[in-house]
Amino acid sequence: MEDKRFYLAVGIQFMQQCTGINIVTYYAAELMWYIAASFVTWYTIDRVGRRRLLIGMAVRMSLVLVREAVAIGVGRDKCAMAAVVCVFLFEACFTWGWMACVWVYPPEILPLSIRAKGSGVAVAADFLGNYLVVQVTPVGIREMGAWFFLVWAVFNVVDAVIVWLCYPETGGLTLEAVDRVFTREEEGSGSTADEGGHATGLQKLQWSKVRVAADMLRESPAAARKRATMEGESERGLLAGDDTPGYGTAATEI
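Predicted structure:
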């Protein structure tokens, strides 16, 4: 399971660059707007959740890039202001979703044994994506003009779909609870599964850990504490059980 978490961490950082953020920030200077927009993220990242911000902002960035391409591609003077507004909207959406969440998510999901190294490789993937974007963008703009923005609009939709399918929510969970998301068997409840514990509709396409995280977040604090206590007692019982050589009474028989 550790390798799957590692791939999630590397993937989310690489996908950050696939949003197309650096086709804007490398050729524009809106640093103060960037900083101002980031204050909103401080409030929303824990209240709204990582998944909602990542998915919602990716969809919005896709729509903004489409409007940006049309505004510039039409080439009329009255569209110039719309193009400028789209630049600011795009950077705001990126800041609210894909700037902070992407740097928080890998350390949250990676187990302690590989957290430092895994986070380092994830950052390397981010800068690799950065390099690829800035190498491809000048060629794309030269060949396609403003319509090159549509390529990144498609990538944003792909990013949103991948997050919906594969990335469990971590906001509102402790690091210990996040670890249990990846080690606990799926238990269906609420809106993510039917009474038999099976996913329904499009949720069948999601990775089971996405539903496990959703179930854990719906639990009341008391129920969550009770579950954690029971799981802890179960683990201690396994360590002291007769079936494990080297522990409990089994150790005396060896």
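Summary: The longest helix spans residues 80-109.
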